[in-house]
């Protein structure tokens, strides 16, 4: 692992989730931007001192010479570092599991996706919400045609944690997320809008044709958007509406997806992840529960506990890790991956997310964006 050291947000989730199925072992790390703190953290995690590195460059040099070198490296650092770290790892022959957004700039995302493709290295991207069994169930049901043609998609990712200027009072996570050089051009839209955009496309299979966006920065002194509304036109005519917000008081992690087709609709809410609500035209509202016998093989493959015993965030993240392990093994063995290794987010999905952010900010900044005041206001 690179990043995810003492006090970091997502690194420990990776460590917990990767261990859940016994497919991965954490054996080496450069966990911190501060070399000594990184080495101390590694030793405290129980790693061999020889594999407790001070920097990702040292990790690459140290691991490259070992017979038991690491199979893959998870990158859990701020956005602007993803590209240089991933590039160096891929060029040294390592597979990579990278946090989202794939990179901080479109130029870097294009280059990284190309490098992944041409090198043949595995690059998985941790779009967490595509790990949930009921999200897979939704994807299968849309693909089977249970909703008919999709007409409209509503997806939202509201959070409350940046409702005040916490970046100015020492919050490490907020500090780099509000710095355009470290985060990229899109504030809320880059940090969480990318999750929502991926989730909507993952479930519906729809491909974006064009968008128009309105960004806002509500907290004074903040350099990036903390609220975004995006209207989307998908190929084939479906429409979408995406909302990301870091200032939506009352929302801890309110990811919500609603898909409306010509024959029915589906709704999924990440704070109740074991349920999917399906409403057929002229039918009753149905709550489909995780663990039921008649769910798709895709959902079953990602289910661990019996019905009524809740699963959640860690299991969804673990499904990504199990999927990455299966995809890497299948590649090594020259076979098609089993169900878990299919539909895992890859470098191209990461590139699509960064391209989406770029288009959203471009749209917002475009001087000819139409805003029309009604005659009566
Ligand atoms: P953070 O600031 O909490 O932690 C970053 C860690 O990286 C720190 O330990 C820091 O010392 C280390 N670091 C920085 N530069 C480094 C370098 N060059 N070498 C080694 N270590 C370095 O950040 P975070 O909130 O955990 O976010 C990290 C990444 O994870 C971001 O890209 C973010 O968008 C993503 N993230 C994803 C999810 C998800 O749901 N998938 C959730 C949160 C964050």
UniProtKB/TrEMBL annotation:
- InterPro entries linked to this entry: Gfo/Idh/MocA-like_OxRdtase_N, Gfo/Idh/MocA_oxidoreduct, GFO_IDH_MocA-like_dom, NAD(P)-bd_dom_sf
* Occurrences of domain Gfo/Idh/MocA-like oxidoreductase N-terminal (ranges): 11-127
Superkingdom of this protein's organism: Bacteria
Kindly name one Pfam family recorded for this protein.
GFO_IDH_MocA_C3
User: Which GO molecular function annotation, any one, does this entry have?
Assistant: nucleotide binding
Q: Where is the GFO/IDH/MocA-like oxidoreductase domain?
A: 136-266
Record-given protein name = Gfo/Idh/MocA family oxidoreductase
In its UniProt entry, the species of origin is given as: Paracoccus lichenicola
The record lists the lineage as: Bacteria, Pseudomonadati, Pseudomonadota, Alphaproteobacteria, Rhodobacterales
